[in-house]
Write a structure and sequence with these properties.
By secondary structure, the chain is α/β, with parallel strands linked by helices. Helices cover 40% and strands 25% of the residues.
Length: 187
Amino acid sequence: MEHGACSPEFLPRNINQVYNIQAKLNLKQKHDSFYEVYLWALQYPELILKIELFPYVTIVQQHPETTKHIRSLGGLIDPIVYHYDTTFNVGKFFTSILTVRHSLFKGSPLIQVAVMYHETTAESAHDTFFEMVAGRLNLNSQNTVIVTDRERSIINAIRKHLPDATKLYCWNHLQKVIFSISFSYFA
């Protein structure tokens, strides 16, 4: 017998070696993205708030330390101004980010509070996001201002989960509407 894969030194001697070889081969198999997110959630359960796979993929993530910090701002910053927008399409998914204007820092920077990766911009996705995030941050108070665009699905989800918060429209989005109306008027 020639030296190679069929050589006796490469053949398993018993059933345990067969199981060990099979286990090693299974470890080398690649997993799809959904399984990787699942493993990520198992490793960091405090980071991933929700994973939905049906009817649309929705993943909501929020870091617990950021949550604690933002909750501690109640009483220090009045009002707390949040910004929420579906920023851009990333391949087949969208990314929506909730940020806070942190006025205790020089320049009042925006700080990311929570993020959602989602397959659809339907109201159900934003509904899931605010359902998971609103209670953790105590967003539904008169001390809360939320600035967003005029996207109907976002507005409806905010009205449902944040009825007491002050809702404002983003100036950049309003300027685009005003410009398009002005442009069409003079065209």
